[in-house]
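Help! Submission page says 'invalid entity' but I think these are all valid:
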Amino acid sequence: MTTTTSPVTDVVADGTTATRATRARARVPWRFIGRRVAFYLFTLWAAITINFFVPRLMKGDAVDNYLARNRGISPEAADALRALLGLDSDRTLLQQYGDYLGMLARGDLGVALTHGLQPVGQVIAGALPWTVGLIGLATVLSFLIGTVGGAVVGWRRGSRLDALIPVTTFLSTVPYFWIGLMAISVFAVTLGWFPIGKAYGIGTTPGLSLEFAGEVIRHGALPLATIVVASLGGWMLGMRNMMLTVLDEDYITVAQAKGLPNRRVLWRYAARNAVLPQIQSFALSIGFIVGGAIIVEQVFSYPGVGKMLLDATNAKDYALMQGGFLVIVLAVLIANILADVAYAVLDPRTRQSEA
Amino acid sequence: MSTTQLTPLGRGARFGAAFAMFRNGKSITGLSILAVFVLVAVFAEQLAPFSPTQIDATARLQPPSGTHWFGTTHLGEDVLSQVIYGTRGVVVVGALTSLISMAIAIVVGVLAGYLPGWRSEALSALANVFLVIPGIPILIIIASRFTNPPLWVVAAILGILGWGWGARVLRAQTMSLRNRDFVQAARLNGEPLRRIIGVEMLPNLTALIASSFVGSVTAAILGLTTLSYIGVIPVNAYNWGTILNWASAQGAFTQNQWWWFLPPGLCIAAIGVALALLNFGIDEYINPRLRSAGELARAMRRKGLDTTAGVTAVTSTTTQGTTT
């Protein structure tokens, strides 16, 4: 770090491999990027297509459901509603598919029957910040704590810290919703430390006030803690196992033989290499995390996208369901792209092998 | 003459080698716990003291007692019997789902690893699509299409959505096997693709397949109980998730009726731990470093050496002190 400016290279501090020389002429790996872009576009198309077909295969239609709940709607009005929702039967499935793609291209997601015919985009925009805030923060926290913890446990192999591994494994084999429900039962009901569910108290009005912020933190703490506790184990175990493999490599022995400080060997030599598969599995687990968000929000009645999707499914509100699913898929794809970028930055081999 | 004598012995040794991954403490413990659950599922009728749906208006929400070991529900149903019958759904769906998803994963993964060029890329992209698209929302949407899905339908949906990870792992391993000498030799001998994959490669993939299988059973059980809990799978086919759904809907968690929600949750945890133990056992068989690292470090510590100090520990006889 400090040695780059000085003309004399400190071999002991820097190591003998010239990591900085390669960075100077790093080329943009167009083929690699192109392949990833094609993959993401294909996945997006597949998701949109599933999204289009699945609700149409479902039994019962949204308008029948709506009529059952709201009496006094004439058959003409019902037909008009069907036309509005793209459910009129005189158009073929292919035409409907075309209409759907056209609407998506215009950013029009339709109207949500269960939210008083509000545009779906608006309903989602109201729910999204809650999910992103809660799930995003929890995911990043558990990834960081788990990876750093796993690195330390792997480094101190054979010590008493090994006992952490079975504990975290146990927590990750129990279904998440059960941990959440137990947490509510113990910490919210019996001990009364936290409120039960919801994002903020019934009396408070949302706004930029200190009182509201306090409410949000108080209500978010328990779901956040349970997600971190439940997902920590996977990251920890993965990192520990990679560390054990990496620590046997010759370059670790060499680094220690050179007399480098332990801290440097641990973080710059071992952990840096061991973290690569972690980032890859991070990308892949995002889908599970987002799916898990539905359960979290159901358990804690948190007003996010997941609960919205579940409610929409129960009410057979197709437009809202499709919108919610689309947002979830987009979130997963964006997170995957970010993980791809991080991977390419951290591991030069992904760039070179494709060139 | 000698070959006829050697064959059975050779076959026996190979048979033994195929099960070597299960012959360690962790695997055996895991398998034993699993066996208990399978037996409970098979003999549910004989083991359960009551019918899971037998309503008893005189014994509502009773804490555990001599007649009802795990207490009763809001309708006076016996929780123990529900848990015992619930084992069936979990075991059946766990096994069936994994069989379906592993069958797809093996076919796609091994083919994608063996075939060259665009066919490999296309199969791999397909597996990645299934990995990336979030499963639970799709499951919720598809499962709600059925008013009363039988267990095999649930298993089929979970299996068809859950093969991506196994295929990915198997593809990577097959790609590395493809260039080994014995596979090259088999190809040069003119062995058909069927034989190369079935006889030359699959035996070398068994540990990996076993490990993926265990992983997919875990995923299937978590998927089933989660879907049952949120009520997507109807509640008349009992499994542990359904019991928790009822308990949650009747407010057992807020009224501290622990006998209702603890047993099914702990059962899921127990089966999960058993599968995790089995996976650890197989992992240590595949990657002996995982096993030896801890033992080696402990052995060194007994000799007064610090593993984290690495090579510097050897020079600790000099005045240089070892770091923390």
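Support: the input was valid. A stray whitespace character was the problem, and the output above is from the cleaned input. The domain at 121-347 of chain A is CATH 1.10.3720.10 (MetI-like fold).
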